[in-house]
Design goal:
Blueprint lengths: L2 H10 L25 E11 L6 E7 L2 E6 L6 E6 L5 E6 L6 E7 L2 E6 L4 E6 L5 E6 L7 E3 L4 E4 L4 E5 L6 E6 L1 E2 L2 E2 L3 E7 L2 E6 L4 E5 L6 E6 L6 H6 L5 E7 L4 E6 L4 E8 L2
Parallel strand pairs: 1-19
Antiparallel strand pairs: 1-22, 2-3, 3-4, 4-5, 6-7, 7-8, 8-9, 10-11, 11-12, 12-13, 14-15, 16-17, 17-18, 18-19, 20-21, 21-22
């Protein structure tokens, strides 16, 4: 049994998703589903990452990383140099906001907040705030398929939203062999699939956006070394970015000192 998949099913079958701030959920034990392929990974490169960044959302655009960091009083929007991890540009949010997922559409960056039920749109070049949107759920992960925003709220539901108005267009429940997969967190659009980190695990689900069915698991356990985990305070895996032109997949975590370019290994 893969350790991370055991954790995944434990978390996903819990009664509800309480938070995305590092507190422990109250899980119920369960057996992992079978017959869904489990992908491994190979590390291609490791880059510096700000260990003070409580990573909530991550994306790659035109040679740079854009990152949303959380925690009240520490939440920010950042432009980051991939090779060095240097923060090139930053916008700090008001202390009352706990920032979450991040997506890009046209010339805008859209950033969720956790409990405030507000999302902010910024000019991608200047980080100037342009507008804000409201929604009725918690805000966890956010990505874009090129036409619609796709949002998670910690449940098994993904919401498809208009990128101009944030109005809900449709929704889909994410399932693995008919069982709901809860705690969907950071999202990334990758070659026609939604990659979703399952909060509190080292597992990423590969989701069919039309049906919501999990088509594969990515087991990212062991990505951050034991030495790095023991030498500083770190939190869970959370941060998926994809370079569509270069076909590069990047992963990091909350307070992680490194960001990894990985290549998936077939089952």
């Amino acid at each position: 049994m893969h350790r991370t998949l055991a954790l995944l099913l434990t978390a996903s079958l819990a009664c509800s998703a309480e938070s995305d701030n590092g507190t422990d959920p109250a899980p119920a034990p369960a057996e992992p589903p079978g017959e869904i392929p489990i992908y491994g990974y190979k590390v291609i490169a490791a880059y510096p990452h700000d260990p003070g960044a409580f990573t909530q959302g991550l994306l790659y655009r035109d040679g740079f990383l854009y990152e949303s960091t959380g925690l009240n009083g520490q939440s920010s929007l950042r432009k980051v140099a991939l090779a060095t991890g240097e923060v090139l540009q930053i916008h700090a949010l008001e202390a009352r906001f706990f920032a979450e997922g991040l997506a890009h559409f046209a010339n805008r960056l859209i950033q969720l907040t956790w409990k405030s039920q507000q999302a902010f749109a910024y000019d991608i070049d200047s980080f100037e705030p342009l507008t804000r949107f409201t929604y009725a759920t918690a805000g966890w992960g956010l990505t874009c398929d090129g036409e619609q925003l796709i949002m998670s709220d910690g449940t098994a539901t993904l919401y498809f939203r208009n990128p101009f108005t944030f109005e809900e267009i449709s929704r889909v429940e994410v399932t693995a062999q008919g069982r709901p997969i809860r705690n969907l967190n950071e999202l990334e659009w990758v070659e026609g699939e939604i990659f979703a980190n399952i909060w509190e695990t080292d597992t990423i689900a590969r989701i069919d956006p039309a049906s919501g069915q999990v088509k594969g698991w990515i087991d990212a356990s062991g990505l951050l070394s034991t030495a790095d985990r023991q030498s500083r305070r770190v939190n869970v895996l959370n941060g998926i970015a994809y370079d569509a032109k270069g076909k590069r997949l990047f992963l990091t975590g909350k307070w992680w000192p490194k960001l990894y370019h990985i290549e998936l290994v077939n089952p």
